[in-house]
Design brief:
The N and C termini lie far apart (50 Å). This protein has helices at 8-11, 14-18, 32-43, 51-58, 60-83, 99-106, 110-150, 161-174, 184-210, 230-246, 254-258, 267-297, 315-351, 356-359, 376-395, 399-427, 434-466; strands at 361-366, 370-375. By secondary structure, it is mainly α. Helix 5 runs antiparallel to helix 12 and helix 9 (184-210) packs parallel to helix 12 (267-297). The protein is globular. Helix content is 67%, strand content 3%. The longest helix is centred in the first third of the chain and has 41 residues, at 110-150. 44% of the residues are buried. This is Amino acid transporter transmembrane domain-containing protein. One of its GO terms (cellular component) is plasma membrane.
Length: 475
Amino acid sequence: MDTHHNPSAVEMGDTAVKNVDDDGRQKRTGTFLTASAHIITAVIGSGVLSLAWALAQLGWVAGTIVLVSFAVITYYTSTFLSDCYRGPDSITGTRNYSYMGVVRAYLGGRKVQLCGLAQYVNLVGVTIGYTITASISLVAIGRSNCYHEKGHKAKCSVSNYPYMASFGVVQIILSQIPNFHEISFLSIIAAVMSFSYASIGIGLAISSVASGNVGKTEVTGTVIGVDVTATEKVWKSFQAIGDMAFSYAFTTILIEIQDTLRSSPPENKVMKRATLAGVSTTTVFYILCGCLGYAAFGNHAPGDFLTDFGFYEPYWLVDFANACIALHLIGAYQVYAQPFFQFVESNCNKKWPQNNFINREYSTKVPLLGKFRVNLFRLVWRTCYVVMTTVVAMTFPFFNAILGLLGALSFWPLTVYFPVSMHMAQKKVQKYSRRWLALNLLLWVCLIVSCLAATGSIIGLIKSVKSYKPFKSLD
C-alpha cells in the first residue's frame, strides 16, 4: 500500500518516516553504480555484435565518425533530460516519475500523448524483440555443437519455439518483482553478461586478425559492383546509420532509471555521471567490436558474428558467449518492461482506488528470499503481458526488422526532440539566438537520419516478409 495514501504511516514513528521519501513514496536507494548498470544493460544489447556489419556498409572513416557522433548526441540530449527530472525548478521542484510526467510538466498538451505513444510502443516492441533475440542465441548454442560434431557444412536445423516459451516462463516469474527500484541486482548481472559476450566477440576477432585470416576492407566499405549493387549500397548504408543511432537509445527509460536514485546528492548530477560512464563504456566496446569485427570479416561481415557463425571454434567459447547474451536479455527485458507495467498499474490505481483486486497487497514468505508482496492484479496482468509478447514473437520471428522500424520512429522524438524542446523551455532559450539555431539544426539533422533509417528498415522488412515461412526451424 502506498504510504502517500496512508496517514497512519507517519504516526507510526521514525521507522515509517525513514522508509518514505519527501513525497510519501517508497524510499529510493539507487546509486551511481545501479544507474550505470541499468544504462549499460539497456544500451549494450546483442546489437553490439552487428556493428561489424554496419561498419562494412559505411567503411572505416564514415563508420567510426557516425558511431562517435551518435554517442555524443545521446549523451548531450540525455543531460537535458536528466535536468528536467524535477519540475521547472530543477533543484527543489516536484519529482516526475516517468518520461510522460516530464513532458507534461514542461511542454503539456498533445505532446504528452505523443510521447506516451512513442515510448510505450517502443518498450513493448523491445520486449518482443528480446524474446526473439534470446531464442536465436540459444538456438546458436545447439547449432554450434552440431557443427562441431558434424562439420561446418552440415545442415543443423533447430527450432527456436521451445526456447521462446522457456524465456517467457522465466519472464513470468521475474515480472512479479514489484517495481523498477527492486531490479538493480538483475541489471548488474545483465551488465556483467554484456561485457562478457562483447569481450569474447572482441577476443575472437583479435585472434582472427592475428592469424592473418582476414576479410577485404575498404575506406568506404562495401564496393559497388563487387559486393553490392548501387541501390543496395544506399539502402544498407541508411540501415547501418540507423543501427548505430539506435544502439545508444536508452532515453526511453532514462527518467524511470533516474527515479530510482537517492535524493542526495541531487539526482540530475548522479544521472549525468552515470550517463557519461554508461555511454563512454559502451562506445569503447562498440568501436572495438565494430572495428575488430570489420577487420576480421571485411566487407562480408555477418549480421551478428556470434549467432550468424562468423566463428565456429572454439565452439565452447561461442556457446558461452551466446549463453551470456540470453542471460543479459533476461535482465534487459525487465528493464524495458517495468516502466510499462508501472504505467498501466498506476493508471488502474487512479481509476479504481477502492478496488481490492487492483490495490490490495498480500505479504507472503518465500523460502530463501524472505518476505514477498503479492498483488492479484499485478500477478494476472503481468503474466498476460509476457504471454502476449511471447506469442507475438513466435508468430512473427522477423519482428527484429519491425524493431528497426520502431527504433527509427521513436529515436527522433524520444532521444532528440523532447529533450531539446524541454531544455529550451527550461532555460528559456531566446528564439533565433545562436544556441536556438544550433539546437534546431541538431533536431533537423537527426530527423533526416530517422527518416532515412526508417526507409532502410521498411525495405528490409519487405524482404523479410517475402521470405517469411511461419513456424519454421532456424538453419
